[in-house]
Predict the structure.
Amino acid sequence: MKIRSCKFIISAVSPKQYPQDEMPEIALAGRSNVGKSSLINMLLNRKKLARTSSTPGKTQTINFYKINEEYHLVDLPGYGYARVSKSSKEAWGKMMEKYLTTRDNIVEVVQLIDIRHKPTQQDIQMYNWIRHYGFKGIVAATKLDKIKKSQRQKHISQIRKTLEMEREDILVPVSSINREGKEALWEVIGNAFIQKGYQITIEEASEI
C-alpha cells in the first residue's frame, strides 16, 4: 500500500477524545515490548512517527494515526507487563474494551505476537477477546529476523496451535528490521477494507 501521508492525531483515554471523522480504523494490539511502535513506523515508512520506548508498558493511551486522509491506524495500550500495577492493568483493559465495543468504524484488529516465544495466557485471552467481538483476529508474528529461517515454520506452528487458529485464520510473519512480510501484511489489511466495503486507495508501495 502506498503511503502518501500519515500523521499522529491524538492520544485518547476515553471515547469523547476519539477522532470524530468516522474514518475506518485498523487497530493494533499486543504485549508490551512486542514491537508495535516499530511495526507502525515500518509500515508507514517513517522512523519516528510512533515513539518506541525502552520501558515496557509505557503506552497507556489509545494512539490514533491518520493515513492517506482515508483511515486510521490505532495503537492500543500494550498488555502483559508484570511491573505495571493491578489498577493500571484494569484501567487499560477497560479502555480497550470500551474502544472495541463502542467504535463502530473498526474494520479489523491485528494482534502482534513475538514469533520467538509461545503465546502467553494473556495473548490467548486477547486473541479470544478479539474474536468474541466479531473480528477475524489477524496475527502479525513480529521479530522474524530474530530466528533462523530453518526454525520459522516451527515457531509459526507453535503460535497457531497455542491460539487454536483454524487453517483459514491469517498469520503474517513480519520483521520491522528488514521489512520482510511488510507487503503481505498490507495486502491482508487492504483485503479487510475491501471485505467491509470501504473504498480505500490501494497502490503498490514504493520504498523510502
